[in-house]
Amino acid sequence: MKKSLLLMTCICFLSVTYLKADTGKPSPFIHKYVAEEWMKSKEGVWEGLKDKKTYWYKLDKDAKLWWSTNGKKWAAVEDGMWADKDGKWLKIGDGKLWWSADKGANWGEVPEWKWEGPKGHWYKFDKDWSLWVAKSE
């Protein structure tokens, strides 16, 4: 009886934890919430990190990566990589978006081609490499 009661209490707690509150926002126990309002980026520019410094990044028509410190003067990124908010390296290769959490030792395709920038904006590419942006709440 005690085991059943304990199990039922745990199930109820977990169920309540993952339900959305009346505000429409998820429970604080759920990790990062991404707004579902994606807007196509007019400039096609996103923020990323490299060597703990924030840079602006963009792709050219061939999906080659460029960076800038001021948004005016651009240079090609020779290794083609940038880092997201959590320090995972991202790169484009074989027509896909890849990331690595171990400094490039292993790579996996980025789910939904979506990542979080250093200032809380979410970015994603569509199949044509157009950039979309959403703010986290």
Description:
This is WWE domain-containing protein. By secondary structure, this protein is mostly beta strands. The chain has one domain. 12% of the residues lie in helices and 36% in strands. The protein has one helix at 2-17; strands at residues 39-40, 45-50, 53-59, 65-68, 75-76, 81-83, 89-93, 96-100, 108-109, 114-116, 121-125, 131-135. The strands form three sheets. The chain has a four-stranded antiparallel beta sheet, with no helix packed on it. A four-stranded antiparallel beta sheet has the order 2-3-4-5, with no helix packed on it. Strands 6-7-8-9 form a four-stranded antiparallel beta sheet, with no helix packed on it. β10 (114-116) and β11 (121-125) form a beta hairpin. The longest helix is centred in the first third of the chain and has 16 residues, at 2-17. The radius of gyration is 19 Å and the shape is globular. Residues 12-35 have low confidence and may be disordered.
Task: Pick out its properties.
signal; 137 residues; mainly beta; four-stranded antiparallel sheet; single chain; WWE domain-containing protein; globular
Number of contiguous helices: 1
Q: Determine the strand fraction and express it as a percent band.
A: 35-45%
- Radius of gyration from the CA trace? 19 Å
Summarize model confidence as the mean pLDDT.
80
- Describe the main β-sheet briefly: 4 strands, antiparallel
The helical percent reads: 10-25%
One letter per element, helices H and strands E, the order comes to HEEEEEEEEEEEE
Give a count of the beta strands, DSSP E runs of length 2 or more.
12
Protein name: WWE domain-containing protein
Keywords: Signal
Organism: Chitinophaga pinensis
